[in-house]
Structures are given as C-alpha cells and as structure tokens.
Specification:
There is one protein chain. The protein is mainly α. The protein contains 20 helices and no strands. α7 packs across α8.
C-alpha cells in the first residue's frame, strides 16, 4: 500500500493568525465576503481554525429592525397626504416595501386599489364619433379622441379596419432612372430648380439617391475665394465683364456675396450732365 498508494503528508497552511491579521490590516479588508472573494485560502483557514479571529477582525453586522411599522406607515400616509400606492412607492420606497411584504392588509385599508369602471366607449359610441364630419383618418382620430382610439385599438381592431382602414402607400414613381430622365429632358441645371419644379423628385433624390444628385447637379464651385481668384487672374474690371466672361461666378456673387461684388467691382457713379 505504501508503495502503490502512499499517504500524502499535508503541508502546514501558511495562513496563521498572524498572517491573516496582517493581510486584513494591510489590504484594508472590511468584510468577510471581501476576504472570501479575494483570499479564499485565508478565509477558509480563519473560518475553520480561527473563528474567534474572524469575529474580532470582521464582525458580522447585526441588521437593525426596520423603522417602518404599521404606526409609522399610517402616520406617513396621513401627514403627507399620500393618495396612491404608486405615490408611496415613488416617494418612500422603504415604507412601501415594508407595507407590501409585511402589512398587505394595511395597504388595502389605507390605499385600496381602485377598480376600473367599464369604459363608456362601445362600438356604437365609437361609430357615432367617426360619423361626425372631419374624422377620416386614424391619426386625426387619435389626436381628437385618444380614449376612443385606444378603446377601438385594444378591444375592437376589426371596427377600426372597417371605419378607418389603413391606406396602403403606393411606391414612389421617382427612381434613379425617372429622376435622371426629368433632369435631362427638361434641362434642369440646379438643385433649386429641381426642388421648385419637381419637389417629389428632389425629396426622393435627397433621401434615397444623394450620389445621384452629386452626379447630375453638382453644387456650385463658386465661393468667395474662387470668385476673388478669377477676378484677379483674368483682370476683370467691371461687373458686366464678369457677367459676360463667367456668368456662373457673377450669379453666385450677386445672389450670395453682394458685399464681395461691392469690394471687388464697385459700381461707378453715373456722370451728371450739366
């Protein structure tokens, strides 16, 4: 037996009273849970061999009785005018928890659950509301009579489908091909023109095909810097010359940078004939 299954000699634990005490002091351990989590070997040695040491270093905290009794809960509800369980739970969760777990009859006495009365909104009353002029869509129905809409949605969904059927949205006619065709055929040269003359096509392109807009109708290249550069490089001396040589630059300057025009190409005062 000694040859096949020798008895293992258990080495003494390195956790003694002194080492456990030093560990707790040096690492600022404040609870048994923390000691067990961070140093399970030390906790096991203290728990099995030195229970008095654990009581000395990390005493078990005795839970103080709750301050919430029937009397204190009753006084709180009366003094603060609490009218519902939701309000008690929101403003004093400890009192609500104590009442809910230990004194349910007290809750029933002080803050009874309100029994919901049956809704006056029946199929007939909802039909009568819809028949009035002006109700033609579920959205309007929801805004003007939210209670009726909610009752119909929850209890009479078939009635909603009958009175106010959901309109199926038809697919947009504007595709990449149709937008490209309208720009080419009508000679549209700017995004503003497309937006003004075909707002649906512009919105569709903006939302679904932004690259198409960049391809067909690139934004103006004319900025303050590019206009200033063309005036300097080409030696332009009058607004008329700029308009004739670079109409795009002139239009951009006139519509967006009027102060730049006044700076670069001020208007000449007309001669006064005497």
């Amino acid at each position: 037996l000694d040859e096949l299954l020798p008895v293992k000699v258990r080495t003494p634990s390195n956790w003694t009273e002194e080492t456990i005490r030093a560990l707790v002091d040096e690492q600022g351990i404040t609870s048994r849970k923390q000691l067990q989590r961070e140093h399970p070997g030390a906790y096991e040695a203290a728990h099995t061999r030195y229970p008095d040491l654990l009581d000395e270093l990390l005493p078990v905290k005795v839970r103080t009785p709750s301050k919430w009794t029937e009397e204190t809960i009753r006084a709180l509800v009366d003094e603060q005018g609490i009218t519902s369980r939701g309000q008690l739970d929101r403003e004093h969760p400890g009192a609500y928890e104590a009442a809910h777990t230990r004194y349910p009859d007290l809750l029933d006495e002080l803050l009874p659950v309100k029994v919901r009365t049956p809704s006056k909104l029946t199929e007939e009353t909802i039909c009568a509301m819809v028949d009035k002029p002006g109700i033609f869509a579920r959205g309007l129905r929801c805004v003007e009579h939210p209670g009726a809409y909610e009752a119909a949605r929850m209890r009479y969904p078939d009635l909603l489908d009958e009175l106010l059927p959901v309109k199926v949205r038809t697919p947009s006619k504007w595709t990449e091909e149709t937008i490209r065709a309208v720009v080419d055929e009508q000679g549209i040269t700017s995004r503003k023109q497309l937006q003004r003359e075909h707002s649906g096509a512009y919105k569709t392109a903006l939302k679904r095909y932004p690259d198409l807009l960049d391809d067909l109708l690139r934004r103006s290249k004319w900025t303050e810097d590019t206009i200033r550069a063309v005036v300097d490089e080409q030696g332009i001396t009058s607004r008329t010359q700029l308009q004739r040589a670079n109409p795009g630059a002139y239009a951009a300057a006139r519509s967006r940078y009027s102060d730049l025009l006044d700076e670069l190409l001020p208007k000449k005062n007309a001669a006064i004939w005497t």
